[in-house]
Structure formats: C-alpha cells, structure tokens
Write a structure and sequence with these properties.
Helix content is 40%, strand content 19%. It is built from 15 helices and 16 strands. Residues 256-261 have low confidence and may be disordered. By secondary structure, the chain is of the alpha/beta class. The relative contact order is 0.13.
C-alpha cells in the first residue's frame, strides 16, 4: 500500500494544474471503486454540460413535435446523461435503421424529414456531421428556431482532443505517430492543427475495414507524407487477437476470448513496435488510442521516447489500471515530463494524458 501511495504521490507531483489533479483523482477513485458518481463529477465539471442542459430543456419544451437526428453512439451518450429523455421519432441516413428502427423506435430518412419542416423540431444529435445536417435542414426550409443543435456543443468538446491548445502548440516540422488512426480523421485534424507544417505521419490501423477507409481518404483528400500500416501497436512484432468493433468497441489482446469462446468479430492482426518502424526518425509527437494496448505500445516506443522526448497524447480510459500504469511508465522514461489530463466526452470515454 505504501508503494502504491508513493506512485500516486509521484504522479500528482507531475500534474501541472488543478484540472489535471481533479480528473486524475476522480478517474483513480472510479478505477478503484467502480462508483459511477466519480465519472458524473467529471462530466458535470465540463463547461459544455451546462450548455447541453439548456439545449435539452429546449427539446423538452417541444417534445411532442421533436425528431432526433442521429441514431448512433451520440444518442446512447445522450440517454446515459438524461435517462428520462423521451425519444419518440428518429432520423438517420442509415438505410438499415430506416427499415428496422432503433430499439423499437421508428427511424425516418432525411428526405422524409424534409417534408415535415412546418410540423417538427429537429434535435441534431451527432457531433461528426452536425454542420452538414444543419446545412441540409436550412436548405430544405427549416426555420432556425426549429433546429436545436446538440451536436455543435459536443463537437466543441471532441474537437480539442489530442491537439488541445490549452496544453501545447505545434512545432515546425512535426513527425507524428498516430496509433489507432481509425479513418485518418485524426491525421486531418493534426494537419489542420499544425497548418500543414509537418514532415511526416506514421499511421497505424489494424481493422481492415477502417484501413481501407484510410487509404481512400488519403487518396481523395491528398494527405501527403503519410505512411499507413495495417497493424496494431505493441511492444514487438507479433500476432494478436483483435475484436473489430469499428470504433469505440474494438479491443486488442493476447487471448482469443474468455474461456476459449470463439467470436466471429475476433480476428488475428499483425502488430508492430514504434521503435522498429520509425528507426532513427526524430519523432516529435505520439498519439495512442489503441483499445487497451497503450502501455504495450509505449513499451514498444521506449527508445524513441527516451531519445527524442516527443510530446505524448495517450488514452487512459480503456483499462482501470491505465490511470496509474500508463502515467507511471511515462515518468519512468523521462522523470521531468510535465503531465496534463483532459476529458473529451460526456461518458467514461476519452480521457487523455498529455506528457510535455
């Protein structure tokens, strides 16, 4: 217990502001107890929560005429925050959802919704496509007072993730390692953040479907100086089990499944160590969102981190122990790293530690 207390004390000593200490303490208590109240404390501390409360109140004022656009993860988060929020009608571009509905709730197409501009209010509840959806609604004659944009509030939270201006600024000639690049959206944000003044991107994505999206996006949008690898990150080259969920549901590990159970979503993937891939490259920035493999990926980048001292942006929410083990390992590589912690979603997900 004394050793654990010393580790906690050491980590807290490297946290640079009250926000970081608040988030660390509550994530640690959540990890130790499983009490969701500690996550609620984090969510309630976000300035976007008050904005969302006000927007949700406006939705409730028009609940009988309300259509929610977005039947995906953002809707699950909304209902987690407001369990009594009445969802009666939905809109989504997904044809399968239009045919089968969502949890027994009918889902209309955007074209069907467009014919109801005089009859309904629309709660735009998707962060990634909120601008596109609002433009669609305006283009089809929806009055501004009938559009309630929840997505713009949550997008203001998500958009700072990994490139938080409160924490750091870009350097000239960045060399960026993107662990878990999904569809290369993060790489686009990186390029925007550094105003295109970068030298190279190394991007890793083990999910085959997502990897194809990355190839397509790189080609269509002209993402230059990027090396894309269909591999997961680990501390060595090996083959691991990967449960491909396409996004937040993905998992990586050394076992196929619990108790030998086979899952059709579990595939074998190749892995790589950052040290082996980048060689002597002067890496300036490493971002890791690798579905619970963050510590192993850091161990596979130990030489690069010791030699180049890159800034780090590492997820610490996939495993309860990450809030201690990942931070402790980072400090073992450089004990003068300054640590910041930030949270970017109104759920337990998307807590990031920055090492500067």
């Amino acid at each position: 217990m004394k050793e654990f207390s010393n580790v906690v004390k050491k980590i807290r000593g490297h946290l640079q502001d009250d926000t970081s200490r608040f988030l660390f303490d509550n994530r640690l208590l959540y990890a130790l107890t499983g009490d969701y109240d500690y996550i609620n404390r984090i969510i309630m501390s976000l300035p976007q929560r008050k904005e969302l409360d006000a927007a949700v109140q406006k939705c409730l004022e028009h609940v009988d005429d309300l259509v929610i656009w977005g039947a995906g993860n953002d809707l699950l988060i909304l209902l987690g925050l407001y369990p009594d929020f009445p969802v009666r009608r939905l809109c989504d571009k997904d044809i399968h959802k239009q045919k089968s509905g969502w949890k027994g709730i009918p889902v209309m197409s955007p074209e069907e919704l467009a014919g109801k501009k005089e009859d309904v209010y629309v709660a735009v509840n998707t962060s990634a496509y909120q601008e596109e959806i609002v433009e669609f609604l305006r283009g089809h004659g929806f009055a501004e007072e009938r559009i309630i944009n929840l997505g713009i509030i949550t997008d203001s939270l998500y958009s700072a993730q990994y490139f938080d201006s409160e924490v750091m600024s870009p350097l000239e000639g960045e060399v960026f390692v993107d662990g878990g690049c999904y569809d290369c959206s993060t790489d686009k944000e990186f390029i925007k953040w550094c105003q295109g003044k970068y030298h190279k991107i190394y991007a890793f994505e083990p999910d085959g479907e997502n990897y194809e999206k990355c190839l397509k996006k790189c080609k269509e949008e002209g993402i230059a100086n990027i090396e894309l690898y269909q591999k997961g990150l680990w501390d060595c080259d090996t083959e691991l089990s990967f449960e491909a969920g396409g996004g937040q549901g993905s998992k990586i590990g050394e076992q196929d499944s619990e108790n030998g159970r086979q899952d059709t979503n579990v595939i074998k993937i190749a892995t790589a160590a950052i040290d082996d891939v980048v060689g002597d490259e002067k890496v300036t920035f490493i971002k890791l969102d690798v579905e619970g493999a963050e510590l192993k990926a850091l161990q596979g980048a130990a030489r690069t981190i010791r030699t180049c001292r890159p800034r780090l942006a590492i997820c610490i929410y996939h495993k309860p122990e990450d809030v201690i083990e990942v931070l402790e390992y980072i400090l073992s590589l450089h004990d003068d790293y300054k640590l910041y912690i930030r949270h970017y979603q109104m759920s337990p997900c998307e807590t990031i530690v920055y090492a500067i």
